[in-house]
Amino acid sequence: MKVAIFGAGVAGLSAAIELVDRGYEVELYEKRKVLGGKVSVWKDQDGDSVESGLHIVFGGYEQLQAYLDRVGAGNNYLWKEHSLIYAEPEGKQSYFKKANLPSPWAEVVGGLQASFLSMWDKISLIKGLYPALAGNEEYFRSQDHMTYSEWHRLRGASENSLQKLWRAIALAMNFIEPNVISARPMITIFKYFGTDYEATKFAFFRENPGDSMIEPMRQYIQSKGGRIFIDARLSRFELKENGTIRKALLNDGHEVEADAFISALPVHNLKKVLPKEWLTHQYFTDLFQFQGSPVANCQLWFDRKITDTDNLMFSQGTIFATFADVSITCPGDFQKGQGTANGGSVMSLVLAPAHQLMDMPNDTIIKMVMKDIHERFPKSRQAKLLKSTIVKIPESVYKAVPDVDKYRPDQVTPVDNFYLAGDYTYQRYLASMEGAALSGKQVAEKLHARQH
Ligand SMILES: Cc1cc2nc3c(=O)[nH]c(=O)nc-3n(C[C@H](O)[C@H](O)[C@H](O)COP(=O)(O)OP(=O)(O)OC[C@H]3O[C@@H](n4cnc5c(N)ncnc54)[C@H](O)[C@@H]3O)c2cc1C
Questions:
Q1: Architecture of domain 2-40+208-291+400-451
Q2: Is residue 106 very low, low, confident or very high in pLDDT (cuts 50, 70, 90)?
Q3: Model pLDDT, residue 279
Q4: Which molecular-function annotations from GO does this UniProt entry contain (predicted)?
Q5: Ligand 1: does its nearest atom lie under 6 Å from the Cβ of 393?
Q6: Hey, which of 164, 296, 345, 423 would disulfide with 435, CB 3.0 to 4.6 Å?
Q7: Contact 147, 166 (CB under 8 A)
Q8: Of the candidates 52, 411, 448, 44, which has an alpha carbon nearest to the alpha carbon of residue 214?
Q9: Does 437 sit in the ligand 1 pocket, CB within 6 Å?
Q10: Ligand 1 center to 445 CA (angstroms)
């Protein structure tokens, strides 16, 4: 049986891995020249790796880690010390370090030691966030009608902890502010954070997400007979009288015939190729409820080290929300002799919220980033900036705003030979690499079950 998959991000690649392993004939069509979607990395003219975004693997990403193992990339990521590190002005840092105890004591003791929270913040947090720690999926779903800020205040948790601790988490998770993001994903994270020590540890890819994950996935799929086409943009579907797909047409006129078709496109791209005949199904009109979150990733190459932190960092009051010196966290790339790197820091910074940056010239953005870098990393004031890059993504992951979760579609559509994968489709994670991997697994399992 032949399956055509459109979109080679983590979701499309995961679906392909799952299907080639079950003996399906798989063809994967990607509109860009590079695979990986929002995790893609490419080399520029200097030989430097340019990332679509700084990516972290969490301990709780069981499915993604299973795929990494399956494609022989199980050693391609490195665990870091289990702590949240906040970069403060003048090079100071504050920490939320988990104590080496079983959950929830790891978090309670760690929280009580956090230097940037007052005793009142700590008490209000333990008291206020308790329903999240004790809650189940049903409770989390019932809180989707309000923003996280509303939930936090309703619980009587302190304003300082909202601004200091949770704002950074909201920006890191979905690139939007706590007064915009739904309470649901945030309190789901608290549950993991507060009850499962392993789930919230971070790992970085040894090189970068492209070379350490996407490339091994590509090799695995092709080694099992899967065919991958780049520069191959899905343009539209041609339908049979009964509304199922006869064939797919690419931009260059190429026709794709298959027994089943999977869209692993981001939801905003999928909306553009939906046949109007399908819009009689609420399943498809519901997709118009999703909006993409704008985000940008900035990389800076310095002539010397401006930090020695081997971990993810957060900050607040800066143009960047989460960031790392990838010359330290990723020892297989960004090292002296690789492209522009000369042994100095290579900062990879996620800029969020980013709606105001989308139309701003890159030079202006770099000036703003550098101002904040100088403020947070005093050693950078003497350093020379060798090079900078910016990647803007106007519609990245869907905005997890209140009342949107219920529109996340199942992978099985009302059209018999058409399926959806993608981080926005229904699975237990928010839009993330794990969510995309889970959607790939689920779509393959459901397609297989429907055909047998
Ligand atoms: C800056 C940034 C940082 C992030 N950090 C993290 C992190 O630390 N941890 C984490 O877990 N997640 C992170 N994410 C989220 C994660 O990258 C995404 O949730 C995940 O990669 C989405 O995968 P996907 O396959 O669903 O979609 P995508 O990656 O968007 O893949 C969709 C693919 O479809 C292709 N396509 C689109 N239209 C067509 C068409 N017409 N024809 C053919 N192909 C088409 C696209 O080119 C793309 O390759 C981050 C995202 C960004 C932007």
A1: 3-Layer(bba) Sandwich (3.50)
A2: low
A3: 97
A4: oxidoreductase activity
A5: yes
A6: 423
A7: no
A8: 52
A9: no
A10: 21
* CA gap 277, 285 in Å, rounded: 11
Q: Which atom of ligand 1 is least distant from the CA of 265? A: 34
Both tokens assigned to 330: 């990723």
For position 416, what pLDDT does the model report? Answer: 96
Which atom of ligand 1 lies nearest, measured to the CA of 422? 26
pLDDT over 70 (residue 293)? yes
pLDDT tens-digit series, residues 225-244: 999 999 999 999 999 999 99
What are the sequence ranges of the domains in the chain? 2-40+208-291+400-451, 100-198, 294-393
The residue nearest atom 12 of ligand 1, judged by CA position, is 432
236 within ligand 1 shell (Cβ under 6 A): no
Say if residues 29 and 9 touch (Cβ distance below 8 Å): no
What is the dotted CATH code of the domain comprising 294-393? 3.90.660.50
Is residue 393 within 8 A of residue 38, CB to CB? The reply is yes
* Matching residue, tokens 């990733």: 297
User: Is the pLDDT confidence value at 104 over 70?
Assistant: no
**How do residues 295-333 score in pLDDT, each as one tens digit?**
999 999 999 999 999 999 999 899 999 999 999 999 999
